[in-house]
Design brief:
The protein is built from two helices and nine strands; from the N terminus they run ααβββββββββ. An eight-stranded antiparallel beta barrel has the order 1-3-4-5-6-7-8-9. It is α+β, with helices and mostly antiparallel strands. Helices cover about 15% and strands about 50% of the residues.
Amino acid sequence: MHTMSSFLLFILFTIFSTFFFSIDGVLIRQFFKADKKKEEETHLHFFFHDILSGKSPSAVRIIGAPNSSLSSFGSTLMIDDALTEKQDPTSKIIGRAQGFYSVAAQQEIALLMVMSFQFVEGQYKGSSISILGRNPVMNDVREMPIVGGTGLFRFARGYVLAHTVWFDANTGDAIVEYNVYVSQTS
């Protein structure tokens, strides 16, 4: 009987140690760190002003076939677009969208967006959110992933919803409403 209980205790110990310990203690460290991490979720709302016209455009073409349109496959634009509190271009600038986008589809107008939202005002000043994703611009609302961030958004993840609120077909200028849903560990 004593041998049976010793054997049972040995089996339970082996199972416990297999599930909760590892050779380098990674599972133990993750177990204790999990209690200290706090997940924060933030919703941000602002407007993105993509200006291709005028004396000081915020988006300029850097790659594209000669004599092709801006919507031609492969066309790439570098951006430094204002992010504002309201749709009005003269409203308060809270940040900049910096990066590039390329026409990445041949059968529709879909962009590959590679950009960082750099915040220059308010509680997120000095922090950024990085976006990398597909933007099928003819859809009313487009979802793109958040792949990281800096400052208060370090280790960020989440998604953005983009909705074009104004577009000038003659110039390519656009105003896009962004709803940003970001989670980060503090």
